[in-house]
Amino acid sequence: MDFLKKLFQLKPRVPKIDVAKRFELIGRVGQGSMSKVWRARDFASGRIVALKLLDIEKTKRLEARFGKLVKPSEGEIAMGLRHPNIVKTLEHGLTTNNEQFLVMEFVEGSSLSFFIEMQHEVLVKNRLRLAIELGEAIEYFHRKNWIHRDICPRNVLIDTEGHIKLIDFGLVVPNTPPFQAPGNRTGTANYMAPELIKRQRTDQRIDVFSYAVTLFEMYSGRLPWDAAATLETILQHINAPPQDIRILCKGIDETVAETIMKGLSLYPDNRWQRVTDMLVPLREVLEKQSHQ
Question: Which of 24, 50, 153, 287 fits a disulfide with 112 by CB distance 3.0 to 4.6 angstroms?
Answer without folding.
Answer: 153
